[in-house]
Amino acid sequence: PYSTRFNLRKSTFADRFYVGVNEETVELHYDREPRFYASLGFDRGIWWGNWNKNFDSTGLAIVRARKGETAARQGISNYSISGYWIKKLVNIATVCADDGAMTTVQYPWPEIRLADLYLLYSEALNEVSGPNEETFKWINLVRQRAGIPTVQDAWSNYARENAKYTSKDGLREIIQMERGVELAFEGHRFWDLRRWKRSHIELNAPIKGWDIEQKDAASYYREVVLYNQNFRLREYLWPIGVDELLRNKNLVQNPGW
Q1: Per residue in 227-254, pLDDT tens?
Q2: Which domain holds residue 170?
Q3: pTM (two decimals)
Q4: Most buried of the four, 46, 173, 205, 252, by CB within 10 Å?
């Protein structure tokens, strides 16, 4: 449950595809949907890669991120400040094995994905006509590809607010969350928060992570504040350049600048 997400838990053989067997990590790293493990690397998590084609490798890589370990801080810049790594941006053909074997395989970056268009369309349909069969169709196509239940099934059977998807406001939040999960680390959130007018909420919250300088699990998995963000309302609109204002006296500077 969410309330015990920071509790430590030792993995078993059943967790072997996501967490190293007999390794200790927090509960929030267990029993997540497939996109969590496809997008994020974390301490004691499995890092899938094309290791089986490297005959000198010893097996799947396990991220070992505590002080003194292979994925811990190395120097002043070679480390993850939060204790998480963006696995999503690494080509699956990249070799990453537990014996340290590693290669880098590049790939063309997709500027726009079909899932993005589906979610934008679902969002627009909800704003026009609210929850209906057509609105659900497009978000559910994204969820189906991810291997998870439809919005209707997931919320009806598992959510505390099991009727949330039946209202326009509720479905709006669900679609926004789906964009955050599906499009994580692809550069959309910056713009999504602005058009949703949620930047002043989300970008004033502190950024937190794990205490990465610690050796033992209990100390490592202490939540620490990494950075206090500061977003001002005027930043929804950027300032008009001074040269432009001088060039056209009819222009009015955006509020707050």
Answers
A1: 999 999 999 999 999 999 999 999 999 9
A2: 114-182
A3: 0.89
A4: 46
